[in-house]
Amino acid sequence: MTMRSEEQLRRRIKFWIVLFIVGLILSGVTAFPIETQLSIAANHMSWLPTFIHEWIVDVHKGVKEINSSYPFLSYGTDWLAFAHIVIAVAFIGPYRDPTKNIWVIQFGMIACVMVIPLALIAGHIREIPFYWRMIDCSFGIVGIIPLYICYKNIKKLEIIESYNSHV
Hints:
Largest sheet: none
Number of helices: 7
Radius of gyration: 20 Å
Distance between the termini: 11 Å
Oligomer: single chain
Order of helices and strands: HHHHHHH
Mean pLDDT: 95
Helix content: over 70%
């Protein structure tokens, strides 16, 4: 294996890790201004199918009422946002040394799989419409794609590193 192919593999791994980190951070920070975002969606997304728009309007109404009477409950979404950012920081490890920190990629893949039963079970208990639970499940499905690509490339990198250490 050439040094160039090893470097290309490392660049590819880093690209997908950065993409995943950015996705985690963006999905986290969007939890902070949830009432504002829901207001915008409720007021400007009437072009959506009626059942989706009505759900967004209903969720906005609920969040607005809760925030005006019990603002401390939104502290939970603040912690959700924080958790996304903290988890994103963990992916700096495989960015710096992919083979040594492949376990972080595996952890992320497991977490992505776990999104699906959580969305289906907790969503049902919390009376979240089925189509919205499917949207939530899609985060796990979309998230696992860059991680799986990283995992496969890290496994290839392990082979190259093993070969290079014996030469």
